[in-house]
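Structure record:
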Amino acid sequence: MKRLRPRWALLALFALVVAAVGSACSVVDPPALSVDGTELSRSELFEQLPDYVQPATGVATTDEDFDPSQVASFLTERTYIFLIQNELAARGIEPTDQDRAAVAGESVPDGDYGLLLQEALAGREALIRALGDEAGVDDAAVDELAQQLYEQNRSALGTPGSTCLSAILVTAADIDLTTGEVLEEATDADFEQALADAEAAKAKIDAGASFGSVAETDSDFPAEQAPNGEVGCFSDEEVATLGSEALAGVIPDLAVGEVSEPVRDDIGYYLLTVTSRTESEVPTFDEVAEQFRQEARRQLAGDAFDTWLAQQLAEADISVDSRFGTWNDEILAVDPPTGATPAGPTTTSPVLGGDVVPSDEPVAEEVG
């Protein structure tokens, strides 16, 4: 007759088996990435990877479905995100709406990972601000850089001005006006005759003839290039580069409807008139100063962020599942597994807005 084991003994045995299996699973399936104890599981990796890069096979089920170098780049980026998240949590800092607005134009993937990355970028801004405050960013330096940024971007602010022109050209040189090729250089006598013809055309206009009608009869511009003398509308920047320095210098001073005196350049004489003009509407520095001060402060504080990041990458406890690569302390990035194409000596990450460059010195690249 068989001897039955007590129920409690069977339950204990079952518990041991479950524990053993669980222990075995934890050994077989370590986290894909661990940064100072914060882990990214394999399941999370494969949930987020398709947002970061499309799998080579079209359907992702295993690590073999992805380019190993792309997986390594993704894990490098997740490393930066973990470092930023951990620092924000340790400092009790939450990104503000201002931080989110500052990175609203950053290019991020679609899906849940894109949302996570967008929040990490906002967290980067919050951390940059905190580190900059600790470093004591000088207000005078902020004002100076803000003014420089305004001048550099002034032409892109507001609405640019434009000037619409008509012109009469009387050539002195023998020139193919369709190609701009000078077939024969003009002599002094040629320029004297061209000036006389231009003055005669101006006299007709002064006597009451329309600029367009005189252009049709007296201008050497091909009719298809300048019908009735109309040569087009140009931005303020384009006006400054039209033709010779003499031409560009006359146009801004002409009132609408006024006809210039003959203006000489290398091929002959021009009569110019402004048919319409739209003045530029560019805000003054005082009107946009706060916007540029914020950007200046962020750029100056970025040096403190670079220093912090370099130190964190050098000191953090970072481990990677060997199936996906290994952390390389020299290049501060995840190397793909042996045999796969390496990620290279630097890894670009939108979290940084630049290249991660290993160095004992603070990273010099400006953080975008």
Observations:
- The chain has eleven helices and 13 strands.
- The longest strand covers residues 268-278.
- The radius of gyration is 35 Å.
- The CA atoms of residues 176 and 365 lie 51 Å apart.
